[in-house]
Design a protein that fits this description.
- This protein is of the alpha/beta class.
- It is built from five helices and nine strands; from the N terminus they run E-E-E-H-H-E-H-E-H-E-E-E-E-H.
- A hairpin with a 5-residue loop joins strand 8 and strand 9.
Length: 152
């Protein structure tokens, strides 16, 4: 299953870095930046997370909440949040259910080696929990991704 523009997001999104269940209804009446990224503490993922951190006040002023998702575990997320001083939740999708639902999991290739992983993708969700915009991997500029969202 792959979610697309106009689709509602699932109610249960997953568990954050502190073991708390995150639900779509937690964001009712707010817009949501739901961003999928490959791995904690890697250069591109750190640049993207820091773009959201550095522009967090502007995103909130624009009505957005931010949630990041990767298949890293809660401990890895806690360390990433602490190291980068991230002011938003990260969902630990260790069972890969959310990445499969959103259609962002698949075969990747690096230096000729094939492996399964997350395709960096961002979903903008409206106040009713409906997908309004999708940033595909080739569109995302990790260091300025928050500005890309704010300029829409």
């Amino acid at each position: 299953m792959t979610l697309k523009k106009g689709d509602p997001i699932p109610e249960i999104l997953g568990v954050n870095q502190n073991g708390k269940e995150i639900k779509a209804s937690d964001f009712k009446g707010k817009k949501l930046v739901l961003y999928f990224y490959p791995k904690d503490n890697t250069s591109g993922c750190t640049a993207e997370a820091c773009s959201f951190r550095d522009n967090y006040a502007s995103l909130r002023e624009a009505g957005y909440e931010v949630v990041g998702i990767s298949v890293d575990n809660a401990t890895s997320h806690q360390e990433f949040i602490e190291k980068q001083q991230l002011p938003f939740d990260l969902i630990a999708d260790t069972g890969q259910s959310l990445v499969m639902t959103f259609g962002v999991w698949g075969e990747k290739s690096m230096y000729g080696r094939k492996y399964m992983g997350i395709f960096r993708t961002t979903f903008l969700i409206n106040e009713e929990g409906i997908i309004e915009h999708i940033f595909l991997p080739q569109e995302i500029k990790t260091g300025t991704h928050a500005e890309q969202i704010l300029s829409l």
